Amino acid sequence: MRGKAAVIVVDVQGDFTTAKKGALAVPDTDEKFLRKAARAIRRLKGQGIAIYGTQDWHPPDHVSFAVNHPGRKAFEAVRLARKMQILWPPHCVHGTDGARVLVDNNLFQAIVKKGQHSKFDSYSGFQDDGGAQTEMHAILKAAGIRKLIIFGLATDYCVKATAIDAVGRGYDVVVVEGLCRGVAPDTTAKALEEMKAQGIIIVKEAGALIKK
């Protein structure tokens, strides 16, 4: 590992948590999980590590919402122009309570919104499926960040996509498995292997990264 480090907290939002009975709640995302994540974030920030976040921020007519595909149901996969798209229940619609980031927003240097284009999904915090870049890379580059510690929701979708895109942009990446939760066990296990194959370091807990 080299250079200045930062944290990216991925999509810890109401609609992805059981704690808030979210529309697309990831298993085991109760208040205990939120407290654990918040403690780790505060400890890392206390060591001078900058904290950034991502936030799903969809329009109501977003391409990933099953209700916008007549005759289709949530969790079906459909082929669109560029790739296969999993259809989800409406979630993280901009301005709604379910889109709110549940960690104290004052802990973040910046929270980068993603998935704002109605025609393209955006699992990654760096770009959407149409290739449009978010602000994330420019913000990190301006801050001199070279190493990223990534965790959040969900392991097998937005955490994986954000981590792999980060490697593609030249960052050294560590993913904290114990501060992530996945949608399903099989896709989560596959995602961890895919990340390892990209040179991403997987650690069980943030304690390994926090100086005593």
Short description:
The protein is of the alpha/beta class. The protein is 24% helix and 19% strand.
Question: Care to describe what's here?
Answer:
The protein is of the alpha/beta class and 212 residues long. The chain has one domain (4-58, 91-209): Isochorismatase-like (Rossmann fold). Helices cover 24% and strands 19% of the residues. The strands form 2 sheets. A 6-stranded parallel sheet has the order 5-2-1-6-7-8, with helices on both faces. It has a two-stranded antiparallel ribbon with strand order 3-4. α3 (155-168) runs parallel beside α4 (185-197). The longest helix is centred in the first third of the chain and has 16 residues, at 31-46. It starts with a strand and ends in a 9-residue tail after the last strand.
Helix and strand arrangement:
Elements (H helix, E strand, L loop, with lengths): L3 E7 L20 H16 L3 E7 L20 E3 L4 E3 L23 E5 L21 H7 L2 E8 L2 H14 L3 E5 L8 H13 L3 E3 L9
Parallel strand pairs: 1-2, 1-6, 2-5, 6-7, 7-8
Antiparallel strand pairs: 3-4
Name a few traits of the molecule.
Rossmann fold, two-stranded antiparallel sheet, 8 strands, 24% helix, globular, 212 residues, 4 helices, single chain, alpha/beta, six-stranded parallel beta sheet
